[in-house]
Structures are given as structure tokens and as C-alpha cells.
Design a protein that fits this description.
By secondary structure, this protein is of the alpha/beta class. Helices cover 36% and strands 16% of the residues. The radius of gyration is 26 Å and the shape is globular.
Length: 584
Amino acid sequence: MMAQATSVGTPLPSSAPDALANYVAARVITANDVAAIAMLLDLARRAHPDLDPSLSAWLALGLAVRGPRDGHTCIDLARGRDWAAGIDFDAEAHLDWPADAEDWKKALASAGPLVGGPEDQTPFILDGDRLSIARSWHEERKIADRLTRDGSSGDGGSVAQVEVLLGGPGTGKTTEVARRLIQFFRDEPDSTIALAAPTGKAAARMAEALRQRLDASDAPPEVRDKVAAARPLTIHKLLGYRPHGTPRYRYHATSPLDVRFVIVDEASMLSSSMMLHLLEALGDKTSLLLVGDPDQLASVDAGSVLGDIARAARPEGSPLHRLTRLLTVRHRFGPRIGALADAILAGDDAGVAQTFAILERRFTITPDPRNVKPDDPESVEWVEPGSDAFKGIVKQAVAQATRLRDRATAGQAAEAVAAQAEFQVLCAHRSGTFGVAGLNERVERQLDVTGGDLWYVGRPVLVTRNTPTLDLFNGDVGIVVPGEGGRRDAAFPREKEGIKRVPVARLEAVETVHALTIHKSQGSEYRHVVVVLPEKPSRIVTRELLYTGVTRARDKVTVVGSRAVIEAAIRKPIRRATGLAGRL
């Protein structure tokens, strides 16, 4: 039999049902997902030649294969329509789709040895209503076993244990970490620590923030020296990642880390796989502190580990409750921005109504002990796309770009870098009129630099690939400034030396960032943030994305978006299907 082609021309394996091409065309699954199922089926048929899964079974398995690419560790069959992508169920004639979890399970019975239960060694695991590829299921089970082992032990479990420090932006997480480090070295002066974060930029920010907090806390010099010596690393580097090695990580269950205390910042970015590798590398006497904001954007890879931990820790009787601390007092921004963040996270009718009351300045501030800074009625602004007010926002962006250029041209590198943190446009999308590309082009056109010198003085650049030899990491932002002998340098902020200059000829991968994506801004803060949403509701514009953008602001946030797009974002949480919270 010849392979059939989908409407986009990608051939499907000849063993796949012809009707599956319609689901590929509707973008429910991909041709590669179907090919993976066909390969597993071919292997299974060596022992089971009559194996003939139904169309719905092919579809379920394809969804399970696709899930991790979309951040899911399982497929919740009870919410089957969530996975239907481009299928319009309101249309008179639409593609067949199982009605409920029981229909899915009946279909999966036809997949025979490909699908088993939690005790089976099969490529797919059906656990209640959740279907997972086996690797994802086993990762979550091992994570849950380790975390609940510590949480359920009345005497603190083993010598080492995992603790969790949660809090939104500016709630004092770094101050608490500094306090813990001072106390740790007071109790165990000869012990060693490791500091880590999921990305190079987050690790660099961790180092700078800890130095500042230790100075502010008047920490003993020996503590500052020990923390400085334990320079924060990426988690990959901490675990000794070897892309071509076996095993892939130098440190693992039988070769654990030789440190007493590990602190991981920005833990919301941890995927399930990375969390498991980290937990397995902990020795019997190594404690772990996870620090982060569970409401921010989750890992790019599969899983939402910190969010799952936060949900599981809420009930007072849960195993993780006593190991988790939640910080709620805000120091970064005032009560109006804080109330907007809370309304967005609420996500319900009341949250939507409160959001627009704040945006339309119909909101009356009431005393809230969680907010330290005084209220500023001008701290929140709402602008409709395409309005005269939006043109004013573009003028502000051009004025900011002009300030950067003027200070850089005058040789004031430090001042130019400092000015960059004063005002930042953050976009939900990369492309489009209201995306990063469109707004960068608009600003550069008014600066009269389009099509001219790529490395123009004052150009703000974002590093997009780690370059350890230059001490630059994905997410670092610098400003192009004049260098010696007519060359151009990029100036990057550094806590110790103030400014780090790098010749632009040595920069391997950078982007212009008069406007920046919200994703790339995670972990940063600016005096005035402009959050720009697309013209129409979008799959990627979610509650967490809007919250992350709004909470980058210190003094003022301007939200650019229509009422429909803002409401759609608030009502659209990132739905990552995982089984971890239930296990915890």
C-alpha cells in the first residue's frame, strides 16, 4: 500500500488509517506523531501480528506523543476536547471525536501491548483518565516519591530535604535566601553550597541580587566571600551535562553532588525532566531550596513542577505544606499594580471586572498590608491599539531610543545602560504590527537607521545564545557604544565591574530590543513597562503571560490591547496537563 499524503503534502505511513490524514490537516496531531506510532506498532506486530488499533486509538496515542512538545506530561482524557485544535464542534459536520474518557479508554483497548497500567512496561501508560508516554509518567512518579518522602516524615525525613520558597515579584525571596545563607554558614561554617538557575541569565541575576542583599543585610565578610566563591551556574552546568556522554550528567543517583546545600532560583522554569535529574543528583546529606513564583510562565519544556508543588502544598494536611513558605508582602510596585496582578490571576468574572475597573481608573485603593509602596493613581494606564494614545506610546519608545543613542554617543556607557532599565516595551508576539519585529522596525524608522549601519550607536541588543567564554548568557541586554580605534562595543551591566565591554565583532547571536518579548523579560524589572498585546485573541496570550508582563514594572505599567483581547487573556490560563499535583 502506498503512503497517503495529508493536505499539506506530508506523507503518512501506509499502516496508518486513511482518515488520520484529516486530523493531521486539522493540526490535531502531526505526520511525525503518526510516524512514531507506526514505528511502535510495527515492532509490536512482530509478537502480535493481528494488532489493529482503531482510528481513535491512533489519535489518542498521537496526542500523547505530541503532548510533551506542547508542555504537557500527559493527556487528560476527561477533557478530550481540549486537544481538538482546529476541529469546530459547532459545525454540522466535523471530524469524529470520542465523547468522553470511557470512549477513549475503549478505543485504547484496541492498541493492545502498546498501552498498559502503572505496573506495566509499555510505551504508553494509562493511569486513571491520564494517558502518558512512559518516560513522562515515570519521571513524575519519581519526583513525587522524593518530594513526599521528605514532606511526610515527621522528623524532617533524612538528614537532607527539599524546601520550597514561593512568592511573586518583589516579595523578598532574595532577601530571605540571603538570610538563610547567613544562618547556614553561622551553623555550618565549613560546609559547601551550590547556587543555580535554569538559564545563564537567571544565574547571573541571582549572583547580582544576592550580592546586593548580603551587602544590605550587613552579612559577615566570610559569608560574602563564600557566596561569591559559589558562583551561580546553570543547572545543566551544576549537574555536569555531557551531551555525548554516558550517562548524560556527571552527577546522578550513584554519583551525587558533594555539597551540603543547593539553592535553585527561578524554579518556575524547571521542566519535569530537569527536576528529576536535579533530585537524583542530591546526596543523602544535601538539602535543596527551590525558589520562584508559581504564577509566572512555566518551563519551555514539558511540566509545570513549581506550579504543581504550590497547588499540592496549599492544604494544611498535605505532605508538602510544612516544607513550603509563601511570601506575600510586595516591595517592588505599589498597590495599584499589585491589585491588577491579583485581578488577572483571579481569572473569573470578578477578576475581569476588577481588571477593567483598575485599567479605567474606577478603582479605589483600600489599605492592604501586602503592599509596602504608596499608591500612585498614574501607575496603571490602558491604551487601545491604533488610538492617538498608542501613537503617544510609540513616541515614548522613540524618545527612549534617542536617549540611549545620545548617552552612548557621548561616551556615557554606564548612563546608557542604566537608562535602558527605565522604559521597556514588552510584546506578546514576535511578529506582526504589534509584535517585537513591527515595533522595532517602527522605532528604527523614526531613528532613521533602517537599512543602514547594523551596529548603530545606542542600539539595544539581546544575547540569544549562551557564550560562556565572553561571560554572556541568553537574555543579557546591552547597548552598542563607541569603542577604541573606531570600533563598536556592546556595553553590558555587571554588578562588580559596573560595565562589561565586548567588541560587537565577537557577538555571535543578538537581536535588537527596542521592544522585547514578555517571555524574554522574565526575571527582569523596569521602571515603566509597556505591555503590547496583539490585535486579536491568540493561543499564546494567556493569563500567565499577561501577569508576567504587568509585574515587570516597578513604578508604572501601560497595557496596550483591546477589551476583547485583555479579557480573553485573563480567561485563558496555561493548561498544562500533568499528573504531578495529584501525586503530591
